[in-house]
Amino acid sequence: MKSETSGTLFLCATPIGNLEDITLRALRVLREVDVIAAEDTRHTRKLLTHYQIHTPLTSYHQHNEAEKGDYILDLLRQGKQVALVSDAGMPGVSDPGYDLVVRAIAGGIRVVPVPGASAVTTALVVSGLPTRSFSFEGFLPRGKRERQRLLEELRYEHRTMVFYEAPHRLLATLEAMKDAWGPRPMSVVREATKVHEEVLRGDPGSLCEHFRVIPPRGEITLVVQGAGGGETDAEVKPQPEPQDLLREIRLLTQAGVNHKEAIKRVAKRFGLPKREVYAAVVEEKREETHSASSP
């Protein structure tokens, strides 16, 4: 239940590059709140200076989210108005703002979104890939094994996929996508809305060759076509073989997912009834047992 005496936590979208990409409402909120909680106060101060906003700033990032989260929640309980911003785009997406939002909601504090620029939708609409249904995956794991496991898990994802990536990890990510998915259509959107904005379209292999010659810089968003041409649930999906289902379940169980939940996830991913996946697994194991026992 929302407290009648608490303040409001405003989730304010900020520009992903071009400083003009901010709403009039966001500017008003940033002027009127008591405090702005920013991922990087130096970065946010440039935006505030540009628009002559003098609201006090406090830092809130992944290295101080527990301690500073307590401080911000205490301000809200006192009736203060707080705006949460990330370095770019909507706070709470692939940043520590999510934890603060969850804690605020649990504490009965009003949370209000102030929408605006988004790297996800910006890259998606300019990619030329299907937009009817998409999956945002954020940053891939840094570890090679964990990254490979996730890409294998996404092999049969039929929706268009959107990822964030850092420039120094782009080549490794493109190589991993090429190995896991082959020559699938994709785009690399670099420095969106900024002076050196660039959209490159191709497949993981060709784009990897490009960035070997011209090292990438700046903020990067990847958009990759889903399996079967990015078809939606109402259209045809690729039909997996029983051994594919078994392999996907093994990957999940190796990652710590229990067997029952692994079957449920695989069934959902392929658009199959759980009983059909279970039957395929049982049959595959029966054949393996029979082959092992045959002379």
Q: Can you describe what's shown?
A:
The chain is α/β, with parallel strands linked by helices and 295 residues long. The chain has helices spanning 24-32, 41-50, 65-77, 97-106, 119-127, 144-153, 170-181, 204-213, 227-230, 242-254, 259-270, 274-293; strands spanning 8-12, 35-38, 57-59, 82-85, 110-114, 134-139, 160-165, 186-190, 198-202, 220-224. Helices cover 45% and strands 16% of the residues. Strand 8 (186-190) and strand 9 (198-202) form a beta hairpin. The chain is globular, with a radius of gyration of 23 Å. The protein starts with 7 loop residues before the first strand and ends with a helix. Residues 231-237 have low confidence and may be disordered.
Quick tags:
single chain; 295 residues; alpha/beta; Cobalt-precorrin-4 Transmethylase, domain 1; Methyltransferase, Cobalt-precorrin-4 Transmethylase, Domain 2; 3 domains; 5-stranded mixed sheet; 12 helices; globular
CATH A-level architecture of the largest domain: 2-Layer Sandwich
Rounded radius of gyration (Å): 23 Å
Percent in helix: 40-55%
Strand content: 15-25%
The tally of helices reads 12
The CATH class of the largest domain is identified as Alpha Beta
If you average the pLDDT, what whole number results? 88
User: CATH-wise, what's the superfamily of the largest domain?
Assistant: Tetrapyrrole methylase, C-terminal domain
Strand order of the largest sheet: 3-2-4-1-5
| Structural category | alpha/beta
Number of strands: 10
Multimeric state of these chains? single chain
- Cα shape: globular
CATH topology of the largest domain: Methyltransferase, Cobalt-precorrin-4 Transmethylase, Domain 2
The low-confidence runs, each spanning 5 or more residues with pLDDT under 50, are 231-237
Overall structural domain count: 3
